[in-house]
Amino acid sequence: MDIVELFKVLSDLNRLRILNLLLREKLCVCELQTILGMTQSNTSRHLNKLKDVGIIEAEKSGQWVFYKISEEFLKENSVLLEFVRRRFETEQPFCKDLGTLRKYKSSFTCKDIRERKDLVEKFIYHKEGER
What is the CATH topology of the domain spanning 3-125? Predict the structure, then answer.
C-alpha cells in the first residue's frame, strides 16, 4: 500500500475510531455502529474504505460478518500501529470509545443488538450521556 493512500484513509476521525476498536478485537458492523453511535450506512462506508486499502478484512461467521485488522497490515505496520494504539489510550474520543467497548462487552453480544438494540444502547450510554 502506498503511504500517501494509507494516511489519506487514516485522516478521518470515524475511521480512526473504528481502527481503535478493531485493534482490540474483531467486531461486526452492528457492534461498531452501536458502540460508536454511527448509522449503519456510515459505518459500512468507513469499513469499506479501510477494507479497500487492506487495513482490515472481513470474516463471515454464520449470518454475521466480523471485521478485524488484516494480519498483513499488522506485520507491515507494527511500529505505526503501536504509536496510534498508545495515542488512542490517552486521547478523546478514543478513550471514551474503549470504555464503551468494555461496557458493551461486559454484558452483550451482537445478537443482543439485533434483538434489543434500545436496551443495549440505554445500558452502554446510561452514565455517559451523549454519544
Answer: Arc Repressor Mutant, subunit A (1.10.10)
